[in-house]
Amino acid sequence: MLRSSRLTACLAAVSVALLSLGAGRSVAEEATSVDVLGKAKMSVPSEFKKSEKKSRIIEHEFKVGEDEKAARLTMMRAGGGVQPNIKRWKGQFSGGKEEDQKTETFKAGPFEVHLIDVAGTFAESMGGGPFFGGKTVQRENYAMVGAIFESEDRLYFAKMVGPAETIKANREKFVEMAKSVGK
């Protein structure tokens, strides 16, 4: 009987210890870097909090900012060409100032990185995904900064969309994140 109670006490202690290892750790603390096509790691700023993926095609999703001012950062493998994807992303926006619409290219690690900035009214697709229609909600004063990582055989997207002020406040962190694949 004494042996049984000691065993029960030991099992209870082990259970508490195992539970405490996960206690207090949010999903955001689990990932500080992501794999990009098996060719490089990308360092994600600690201010970008890991969040639940809203689609199964998304590999990683982060929340940038707080409450109704939060932006959504998604990362995933992709296909198609660079220019058709840039055209599609720009086509999701209307209006906006000309100086807020720009594209630049730089080399980082094994990738040619295409950085895209767009601002204006964002036509957010609710349901359906990027290719399958669904309800569209017009989000005024929104912006996007996206990076297309081009390798010889695949593309990888990192795309941050949300209120313009949140995107502008976090753009440099996003750019440094994109450049981190070269470090």
Question: Could you give the topology of this structure?
Answer:
Blueprint: H1 2-22, H2 27-30, E1 33-36, E2 40-43, E3 49-50, E4 60-64, E5 71-78, H3 82-91, E6 93-94, E7 102-108, E8 111-126, E9 135-150, E10 155-163, H4 164-179
Antiparallel strand pairs: 1-2, 3-4, 4-5, 5-10, 6-8, 7-8, 8-9, 9-10
Which characteristics define this entry?
183 residues; alpha+beta; Protein Transport Mog1p, Chain A; eight-stranded antiparallel beta sheet; two-stranded antiparallel sheet; 4 helices; 10 strands
Averaging pLDDT over every residue, what do you get?
Answer: 84
Q: Please bin the fraction of helical residues.
A: 25-40%
| CATH evolutionary superfamily | Mog1/PsbP, alpha/beta/alpha sandwich
Under CATH at level 1, the class stands as: Alpha Beta
Number of helices, counting only DSSP H or I runs of 4 residues or more: 4
Could you say how many structural domains there are in total? 1
Keywords: Signal
Signal peptide: 1-28
